[in-house]
């Protein structure tokens, strides 16, 4: 069984969903320490001036896990994000289809940041037709850290293959996985151009940029990544 693992990120890029689609089981690392340097609470959209970052204001303490972090809803960040999406994507081909769905998701009350991100991402997965089963690391009661924790999760869930993102290639040990009888492989996802508003193409934006411009067209993603076609 091929397992992929990742933290629950905020409206992540297409490669995040591609990795989930290629796994037999996906695990959300919802109970690892929140990092202000990662994409747990922010992502990028495209504007006429180029990339713009959407950031969620948070309430948390040092060493809090992602599922302990709360969003500061009293600062009206939801309305601000929705307004930025409306202003910048109202002329996109799929705005009328996608924006009401995003609006409903963002205006829903959530218990914590992880819960919100997982709910939004599950909805997007469903729209793409991706049916990969998902579990949360917090439900597994595994207390080891870093690579050992990944190995323990894989062993607990009966994985014989760990499907990793390319960003981890620099610090993962193939030998450690092999000792556990687990094959370490890496995603073949590569960013590709698709129709966007305004001149030039911005890579690795939030999946929302793709949805507003292309809708829930998962076939386009597969053809570009797996067949290398430029549509």
Would you write up a description of this structure?
- 33% of the residues are buried.
- Helix 2 (77-89) packs antiparallel against helix 3 (95-106).
- This protein has helices spanning 14-21, 77-89, 95-106, 113-128, 146-156, 174-179, 207-214, 218-227, and strands at 2-6, 25-28, 42-47, 50-55, 58-59, 70-71, 134-136, 161-164, 183-186.
- It has one domain (2-227).
- It is an alpha/beta fold.
- The chain starts with a strand and ends with a helix.
Number of helices: 8
**Major β-sheet annotation:** 5 strands, parallel
How many discrete domains?
1
Strand content: 15-25%
Structural class: alpha/beta
Spell out the helices and strands N to C: EHEEEEEHHHEHEHEHH
Q: What's the alpha carbon Rg, rounded to whole Å?
A: 18 Å
Q: Runs with pLDDT <50, length 5+?
A: none
Number of β-strand runs: 9
* Overall geometry: globular
Short characterization:
The protein has 231 residues and is an alpha/beta fold. It is built from eight helices and nine strands.
Spell out the blueprint of helices and strands.
Blueprint (H helix, E strand, L loop, with lengths): L1 E5 L7 H8 L3 E4 L13 E6 L2 E6 L2 E2 L10 E2 L5 H13 L5 H12 L6 H16 L5 E3 L9 H11 L4 E4 L9 H6 L3 E4 L20 H8 L3 H10 L4
Parallel strand pairs: 1-2, 1-8, 2-7, 8-9
Antiparallel strand pairs: 3-4, 5-6
Helix pairs in contact: 2-3
Q: Which features characterize this protein?
A:
231 residues; 5-stranded parallel sheet; alpha/beta; single chain
